[in-house]
Design a protein that fits this description.
The chain has about 240 residues and is an alpha+beta fold. The chain is globular, with a radius of gyration of 18 Å.
Length: about 240
C-alpha cells in the first residue's frame, strides 16, 4: 500500500510519501504478509523544479518500481519540462509494463513548468486506470495546470490507498484546522509548515491502520520534497510513527 499527498499553494509545491513495502506470498499455512520499510516512492527531479512519486504494483518487469523510477529519472535528465517528462513517462511505462490486464500502477509528477511570465505550477497523474474507477486500455496522463486562486485556496490531492485518509481529511476537518480568534491555523502559512502537515497526515493514517489491528502497510519514515516558487528545493525524511 502507498499514500502520496500533494499540496500546491502560493508558497510552492510539496509532496510526501510513506516508505512501506508490502509483499504477500502463499505458504503451506495460507497467505502471509510481510511489511518492510525504506522503499523510495518519492524522488526529486534534479534538473527540473519538481518531484515524482509512484504507487501500485511493486515491479515493472523484473525491476522493483522504485529502482525503475530512479533509473528513468536519471536517463531522462535532458527532458526540458514537467509536461514533456509526464508524457515521456507515460509512453515508457506503457512499453515496459503494458496496460490491458496489467496490475494497477500509478505515478504523480508535480512542480513547476517555465511560463512566459515565470514558473507555473502543475501536477500530473499517470496511470493505467481511471481515477474515477475502471481499468484503462493504456496508460494516460491526467493533468492539473490551472488553479482558481492559490493565494486563498491551496490545491491538494491524494494518490494510492486513500481509504483512511479520505475518512479524516474531510471538508469539516479542514474547516476546523483554519484559524479562529482563539486558535492558530494548521498548517501555518508557509511552504515548510504545509510540507510538515503532509508528513503528519501520513503518520496519522499509519497509526489508524495500527489502531484498526492492521499491518502498517502505509508506514515507515515519510519522505517529503518541497519546491518553493523561487526554485528552492528541500528534501527530508521523517521518523517512523
Amino acid at each position: 500500500m502507498t499514500l502520496i499527498l500533494t499540496d500546491i499553494s502560493k508558497h510552492g509545491v510539496a509532496m510526501a510519501a510513506d516508505t512501506a513495502e508490502s509483499i504477500e506470498a502463499a505458504t503451506e499455512s495460507g497467505r502471509k504478509l510481510r511489511v518492510s520499510f525504506g522503499m523510495r516512492k518519492l524522488q526529486r527531479l534534479p534538473k527540473l523544479r519538481g518531484m515524482v512519486g509512484t504507487w501500485g504494483f511493486g515491479k515493472i518487469g523484473l525491476t522493483p518500481t522504485d529502482l525503475w523510477l530512479d533509473d528513468f529519472v536519471t536517463r531522462n535528465g535532458h527532458v526540458p519540462s514537467l509536461d514533456k517528462l509526464a508524457h515521456t513517462l507515460c509512453r515508457t511505462v506503457q512499453k515496459n509494463h503494458g496496460a490491458a490486464g496489467a496490475p494497477e500502477l500509478g505515478f504523480r509528477l508535480s512542480g513547476y513548468n517555465v511560463g512566459k511570465s515565470g514558473p507555473v505550477p502543475a501536477s500530473y497523474q499517470i496511470c493505467n486506470y481511471d481515477p474515477r474507477g475502471g481499468v484503462l486500455s493504456e496508460f494516460e496522463v491526467f493533468s492539473q495546470k490551472h488553479f482558481s486562486d492559490l493565494e486563498h485556496a491551496p490545491w491538494s490531492t491524494a494518490d494510492g490507498d486513500t481509504t483512511f485518509y479520505r475518512r479524516v481529511a474531510t471538508d469539516d476537518f479542514r474547516q476546523r484546522m483554519r484559524a479562529t480568534p482563539d486558535t492558530f491555523p494548521v498548517p501555518a502559512d508557509s511552504l515548510f509548515s504545509r510540507a510538515d502537515f503532509l508528513v503528519a497526515c501520513i503518520k496519522f493514517v499509519s497509526d489508524l491502520h495500527h489502531c484498526a489491528g492492521l499491518a502498517r502497510t502505509i508506514g515507515g519514515g515519510p519522505v517529503v520534497i518541497a519546491v518553493s516558487n523561487a526554485g528552492v528545493v528541500t528534501e527530508t525524511m521523517g521518523h517512523p510513527p
